[in-house]
Amino acid sequence: MEDGKARRRLKAIRTRGAAVLEQARRSIDIVSDGEQTRQHFENKQTVLIRDRYEASVPSVVGAVERKAPVFVEDAKFLRTLTDRQIKWTLPGPMTMVDTLHDGYYGSREKLAWEFATILNQKARELEAAGVDVIQFDEPAFNVFFDEVADWGVATLERACEGLKAETVAHICFGYGIKANNDWKATLGTQRRHYEKSFPLLQRSSIDTISLESHHSNVPLEVVELVRGKRVMLGAIDVANQQIETSEEVAETLRKALEYVDADKLIPSTNCGMAPFPRNVALAKLNALSAGAAVLREELVGAQV
Ligand SMILES: [Zn+2]
């Protein structure tokens, strides 16, 4: 028992330490542990996710409740590894509802409000553990437009209620798995999905909006719709292993400056890079850092 525990602890130190070190080496300002602490559940059922692909997911079999903090120890540990800002990612209420089988509530909205309350408790604990940036992933916002307007943004705001940490809504077209890539191929050259959620988010209490850009066929003028918010802009394609050049990254960011002030622009990846081999993910992180540096120099140069 004790041996197993010690081994797991050692593994955690090695893998998360490596993730933090690789980010620090590349001067990444907001550091995460690479989401190595994602949880697995019992009572799985197969459902259709995002109207797109089937997956085996947890099933709600009774009233949902939060038993014990899940991530707090992991967050505290990450806090000890770096002095930089740290980010923790949680699923948003709508995306949670869409990623499980409900055998109890019979209402997506009702279940979303329950999750929002629980997520808010989790987020407050993470903030107390020293997390600076709390990101809620809401890829479902690019699919269920009516629900986004009815209760999606409202439940997300509930999840963020009272937080002093920076809050982020990450809305993407999914990471590079086949079902997502096939779906993206059907979306044409003008993906206007963000036009539905951004006006609502602009009026919301959420601090930062995270969106896809590079290779995503998203018209950049959608960024104008969240004017005043901080914008985490995806300048790295996660559906393709081709490594971006620093100039490509800089160009994506440069174009966005027409719609967002430079001090509110946070260069990022389109989504997570978990499906990539390590060397690809690290090379893409290099490109992100180098591209941001190119633009930073230009902006500093322009001020002199
Ligand atoms: Zn994403």
Can you walk me through this structure?
- With 304 residues, this protein is an alpha/beta fold.
- Helix content is 43%, strand content 16%.
- The chain has 9 helices and 10 strands.
- The strands form 2 sheets. The chain has a 7-stranded parallel sheet with strand order 1-4-6-7-8-9-10. A 3-stranded mixed sheet has the order 2-3-5, with no helix packed on it.
- Helix 5 runs parallel beside helix 7.
- The model has no long low-confidence stretch (mean pLDDT 92).
- Zinc ion binds at residues 137, 139, 170, 172, 175, 271-272.
- This is Methionine synthase.
- Residues 13-288 form the Cobalamin-independent methionine synthase MetE C-terminal/archaeal domain.
Give the helices and strands, then pairings.
Blueprint (H helix, E strand, L loop, with lengths): L1 H24 L4 E2 L12 E6 L3 E8 L11 H10 L3 E7 L1 H5 L3 E2 L5 H21 L4 E5 L7 H16 L5 E6 L6 H8 L8 H9 L5 E5 L17 E5 L11 H11 L8 E4 L9 H26 L1
Parallel strand pairs: 1-4, 3-5, 4-6, 6-7, 7-8, 8-9, 9-10
Antiparallel strand pairs: 2-3
The site of zinc ion (ZN) has 7 residues, from loops.
Put the structure in a nutshell:
The chain is of the alpha/beta class. The protein has one domain (2-303): TIM Barrel, CATH 3.20.20.210.
How many E-type strands?
A: 10
CATH topology category name:
TIM Barrel
CATH top level label: Alpha Beta
Q: How many whole angstroms does the radius of gyration measure?
A: 19 Å
Q: CATH architecture, please? A: Alpha-Beta Barrel
Q: N-to-C terminal Cα separation, in Å?
A: 62 Å
Counted up, domains total 1
Total of helices = 9
Overall pLDDT, averaged? 92
Shape summary: globular
Helix content: 40-55%
What class do helices, strands and sheet pairing give? alpha/beta
Major sheet attributes:
7 strands, parallel
Distinct small molecules bound, one entry per kind: zinc ion
Q: How are the strands ordered across the major sheet? A: 1-4-6-7-8-9-10
Order of helices and strands: HEEEHEHEHEHEHHEEHEH
Q: Uncertain regions: pLDDT < 50 for 5+ in a row?
A: none
Estimate the strand proportion.
15-25%
Protein name: Methionine synthase
Cofactor: Zn(2+)
Enzyme class: transferase
GO molecular function: 5-methyltetrahydropteroyltriglutamate-homocysteine S-methyltransferase activity; methionine synthase activity; zinc ion binding
